[in-house]
Amino acid sequence: MSDQANNNEKTFTLTNDETGESCKLPIKTGTHGPSVIDIRKLYAETGHFTFDPSFTATGSCKSRLTFIDGEEGILLHRGYSIEDLAGKSTFLEVAHALLYGDLPNKAEKEDFEKDIRYHTMVNEQVHYFFRGFRRDAHPMSIMCGVVAALSAFYHDSLDIWEPEQRELSAHRLIAKIPTLAAMTYKYSIGQPFMYPRNDLSFSENFLYMCFGVPAEPYVMSPVLADAMDKIFILHADHEQNASTSTVRLAGSSQANPFACVAAGIACLWGPSHGGANQAVLEMLAEIGTKDRIPEFLARAKDKEDPFRLMGFGHRVYKNMDPRAGVLKKAAHDVLEDLGVKDDPLLEMAMELERIALEDPYFVERKLFPNVDFYSGIILKAMGFPTSMFTVLFAVARTVGWISQWKEMMEEPSIKIGRPRQLYTGEPSRPYVPLAKRK
Ligand code: ACO
């Protein structure tokens, strides 16, 4: 029940049915989206916590970066639609918007891009870290380690209370993570690391560091560079998802930004989050041929079977993920540029999408393709192994993580994040000496 208090602040009154006690909680309204009930005084006033495992009904912060309307399939960064950004902008322009609030003007764009380019190299000592890893290590395991290790190298930007140092760390992370990601790939295939080339754009340089070799000039495909940039834009930020919340929570303890982003990378690795695009390709390979699609759809619907249709469903989107539509088109462009006709994976993905979208199970549960459904097909066509897919997601999402961290650090007061719990363990009991335990 909601009512109006004297000062015109909307409130929500919560009543304990047993005692009749009630508590008036303020309702806060944002620019878009559902309003929230501010429960910060709830415990002090009632002695109760709220219970919301998995945070399905909890807003953890105020943010001005990204808005998602999951019912309508809308995604805005700083108010700009994802379709406009992916169709008309560049990844570094989007990064500027997320970090500073607006798309850059010409001079700001030049300055920002120059600054990111200036920071693309990593300390030469970092190369030795790689040699300590097995060649067959999962690239995400290497990324967790080397990104956290950056904090051991850049002591001049670790003071989180200095805005200039925060900005320097943000630029370093955006610039160096692609270099580390490419090194991770090169290490896994036994090729020499390629130093960044600052005459190239962000995405061109990344492709060059991944696929260039010292023995011959690298021939850049503008279509692939454009698709890479789109993939980065589409993964740049997605409000308070699991990895971003991890970065914010780590940051709330005043940990340094390199450590916080490493925590985000660890969270992103899971197949329910960033690992899903790898899982999509593995699933398509497992299905094998179109005639086996019904068998796998039946398994996805069977509650006794742990199999899920990877790349389908989303915690927030209950409509088409707007990023999936952009990627579906990009997948066609990339395959055409590469001269791939009738790619069996793309055909199977489209057939799977078609059948699933007509199936009452998926329709009733509002399960639509998400961003991961088509991204894997593009990345595979570009030449990336599936194990690198989540790493590429991390390259893009670094922008979101660090922009969200920066926003949090700019709040007038920061408190450590500390959820509570509903304890369901043993009640208090006497200690039993070892000799007397049964
Ligand atoms: N295949 C089959 N059934 C599904 C799927 C799926 N991919 N996703 C959800 N469902 C079903 C659930 O079994 C549940 O059915 P029920 O109501 O009969 O119990 C219902 O749809 C609701 O699903 P939840 O699990 O409650 O949805 P939740 O919001 O917790 O999960 C998630 C979202 C994790 C993304 C889920 O849809 C999933 O596992 N999808 C596959 C993995 C994937 O693609 N992840 C990428 C997410 S996007 C990203 O991180 C970039």
Descriptive account of the structure:
Helix 6 runs antiparallel to helix 7. By secondary structure, this protein is α+β, with helices and mostly antiparallel strands. The protein has 18 helices and 7 strands. The longest helix is centred in the middle third of the chain and has 27 residues. It is globular and about 80 Å long. The strands form 2 sheets. The protein has a 4-stranded antiparallel sheet. The structure holds acetyl coenzyme *A. The site of acetyl coenzyme *A has 17 residues, from loops.
The secondary-structure class comes to: alpha+beta
Shape, principal axes of CA atoms: globular
Query: What is the number of strand segments?
Result: 7
Uncertain runs are 1-5
Q: How many separate helices? A: 18
Order of helices and strands: EEEEHEEEHHHHHHHHHHHHHHHHH
Main sheet specs: 4 strands, antiparallel
Mean pLDDT: 93
N-end to C-end Cα span = 53 Å
Helix/strand layout:
Layout: E1 2-4, E2 10-15, E3 22-28, E4 36-37, H1 42-46, E5 66-69, E6 74-77, E7 80-81, H2 82-88, H3 91-100, H4 106-118, H5 126-131, H6 139-149, H7 163-189, H8 202-211, H9 222-234, H10 242-252, H11 257-268, H12 276-287, H13 293-301, H14 322-337, H15 344-358, H16 360-364, H17 372-382, H18 389-409
Antiparallel strand pairs: 1-2, 2-3, 3-4, 5-6, 6-7
Helix pairs in contact: 2-9, 3-18, 4-7, 6-7, 6-11, 7-8, 7-18, 8-9, 9-14, 9-17, 9-18, 10-11, 10-18, 11-18, 12-17, 14-17
Bound molecules: acetyl coenzyme *A.
In short:
This protein is of the alpha+beta class and 438 residues long. It has 18 helices and 7 strands.
